[in-house]
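agent: user wants the full assembly modeled, not chains individually. Plan: 1) parse entity lines 2) check alphabet per entity 3) run joint structure prediction 4) return tokens. Steps 1-2 passed, two entities, 551 residues total. Proceeding.
--- entities ---
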Amino acid sequence: MKEIKIKTKDLILYYGAKMALNSISLDIPEKEVTAFIGPSGCGKSTFLRTLNRMNDLIPNVKITGEVLVDGLNIYDKQIDVVNLRKKVGMVFQKSNPFTKSIFENVAYGPKINGINNRKKLEEIVETSLKKAFIWEEVKDRLHDSAMGLSGGQQQRMCIARALAVEPEIILMDEPASALDPISTAKIEELIFELKKHYTIVIVTHNMQQAARVSDLTAFFYLGELIEFGKTRKIFTTPDKKQTEEYITGRFG
Amino acid sequence: MSRKKAITGGLFVGLTAFSAFLIIAVIIILLVVIIIGGKDTFSWEFLTAFPEDGMMKGGIFPAIYGTALLVVIMSVAAVPFGTITAIYLTEYAHEKSILAQTIRFAVRTLATVPSIIFGLFGLGFFIKFVGSGMDDVFLGGQLKWGQPNILWASLTMALLTLPVVIVSVEEAIRTVPREMREASLALGATKWETIRRIVIPGSRSGIMTGTILAVSRGAGEVAPILFTGAAYYLATLPTSLSDQFMNLGYHIYIMATQSANVDQTLPIQFATTMVLLMLTFILNLTAVIIRSRLRRKAK
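--- prediction returned ---
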């Protein structure tokens, strides 16, 4: 078994008076792909966003319990949330390029971190775009607006942008849900490649996708973690009846 | 019965059409009268020359120059201040907090205060309080800042146009999508870095619209500068912030009410009005174009 990268203990999250996550305890191993599945509103995206504290931005959210990244509780008062987010990158459901050039998009993170040397930035941009399998498509138009890219290209550029700050963990919130099958296949191929170096947590609606790309799968329902285990087992011989019913398409 | 209803209905349609037509007619009549009255006087020379013969002849260059200077100084004060306020309201203040609601209430109130009140406030606050205070403290009571000048007039005008800037910038800031802010924060940017690198650049056109609308408002208002800096006639252009200045709107008022021979200066009045109208029309049109582009982008 690989080392545990992220560990949550009794994580409870309230939106105002409504409990959105009920006591989630989960171990996510290093350099593997962990998928969160479940019907809409089950809390899987909310849970993902607790892992880099993106829920901090939403008013009236109350969180108890612990999230340990490399053994440190990220909700501890001494934790610098900015450093945390450099370590835990995120790719969003809807590709969200800045209205800047492709180069400036990818260089955004490094620049924030104080890298201003042009040569160094060019290097980072090139490696990041190569890692995200999009370099060949954009190398001749790095200084064109990122808004001119196709949806799939934008999403891969956003992955490159996340890689440019050299995170250790990448959270993906339904990264392919708005893409066509060919772009989706490219993203999945990319995830497969990235897990050699990064710990990946992916939320997906698409069960085939979870089965294809992930090593471990967690099934959420109504804010509870119903079942968590090896993807192969979850999809073939789940322990819980609810998991089986969801996976075979009987509800959700 | 139904016949009666049809007649009432028809009358109402006629009434609405008439009202709409009336508005268009008023604008057309206004423009036609002004253009006919001013077209013979309006020339390149009129725009670039000083008034002559006790302002019975010559051009209106000092009034154009003074108006331009007024709106520039006004913008330098109102745009950064208004932008920062808008950023505070949208990014930092909690929507429901008492402070934010108080600020919003103040902004709305400021926008409805009659402009002459701003003039009186400028006289009382900037000239009598700040200006005289500066004279007492720095110049041993010698009169320099405690009298009307272009600085106090510009600052008074800035107060009047502040709500315009705040509202435009706020609207623009709200069009910057949440996804883009989240992307920035997820890359390890702080809130301030996100505002500086994503939110403000994304609101540039809104800041510009606000500026143009403020300038167009400031160029046309007379009441706020009546007591705070506008001059009847000056032989030289203002060269210091403590100088008085001539102004297009004020010039029209002077020519129409204080001139030695009002009938004789009528063509100058028309031509000056034409210049002022053209100026504000062009500015407003530019603002409308930028704003409509911005709104399309927001959708």
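agent: reporting back. Chain B has one domain: 39-298. Residues 39-298 of chain B form a domain with the MetI-like fold fold (CATH 1.10.3720.10).
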